[in-house]
Amino acid sequence: MKFVSTRNRTNQVDFAKAVLDCMPQDGGLYVPAEAVDLRRWILYTDSSTTFSNIAGTLTSACINNEFSPIICETIASRAFPFSPELKKIDERLYTLKLYNTPTGSHKDFGISYLVNCLETIHQLNGGKSVFLDVTIGELGASLACVLRGKKNLKALLVYPKGCIRGLKESDFIWNGGNILPVEVDGTEADCHRIVRQIFEDHSLVEKYNLTVANTANIGRLMPQMFFYPYAFSRLKEEVAGDIYYAMAPGNYSNLVAGLYSWRLALPVNGFICPSTNSLALDPMGLCTVPDDLVPFEKRRKADPANPSNLERLEDIFSRSSLMLKHFVYPAVLSSEEIEEACRHLFVKYGIFADKNTASAYAAVLSRRELLEEDDATAVLVLRDDPALSSEYIRHATGETPEMPENVQKALNPVQIKKPPVTEASQIIELLNSVL
Length: 435
Hints:
The chain is built from 19 helices and 15 strands.
């Protein structure tokens, strides 16, 4: 499989190039150049097929001209000692839990896969990479877990002052680790501005071998494609009718990954999500993307610091707006409907739901006509441990979810006793000092 920019489909790159130099210079985002039919792999999986087996097999099928099947299996087995969990909670409702992970966040799947891919690329071809990312804690804690022991990767993580969480003393570069945490004397938006400014100078990206661990990097997004074949490998033995996945939109990464899985021949009938300003309903009640009226080349460059996958979503449906209207099903929801859905999940199923999960479930209830056709089944995607949203859940249900030990560790504040920075030039000085 080759990859192209959303803004220039003539310049194809291989997988290694796409994850190493993750931001195309034309301002777009890397996307798969073509759809690969993986039906024979997906349909032969079953409930005994592990998540890492599915990830290794699909990786090999997608990029078989770069890595051998053995290497792909090795990447997947190293990346995924943890797995999603599919659970039936009602006659036509399942949950897909994505937070059985080191930090209790779905981000762990994508970050672990990306890190292990990059480490393998450098072991095979030489070289090193540096992650330059903004985080308020979650991404940093996830990166710290998987970077331990890696020889060819480092991370410079940019935090608003006072937001460093989930790191150990041994993770710091000055103690022999792989992470250089830097506090900015300002807001998260100031952090984004600084990182964006550095990536705008491609000579700096090349000099320091910079990449990102957020979903602007296709290598971070790609493993989210594996969630859906994994769920189907379990569902196909129990479900005869249509299958819909329900999720919060977030930055559209899980939705885009699900659509990529569908393009690989995954049996699925659609995706249900809350509507947003950018993923809305037209006067006929069908899905529309208002930004689609503006050509990609007339927009700002994709943001490496605070990415949105909306452009990738538009790219998928650029040749068929009719498909968008009949495959993605937004629901317009009020905050009251979302809170009621949160309470309903708790009272009826004993599920603590953060606002993202509650909004996805509220969307299912709003679009219940889809499930009433052909005995359809909905799979509710649970992204993050509910303990990360304990205040919202307590407000909605009167109960507070228990805080697991791994989540507590990821939330523990860290003091680095280093002076904060205010400008991109200071970050560049730090890159010079550690590389």
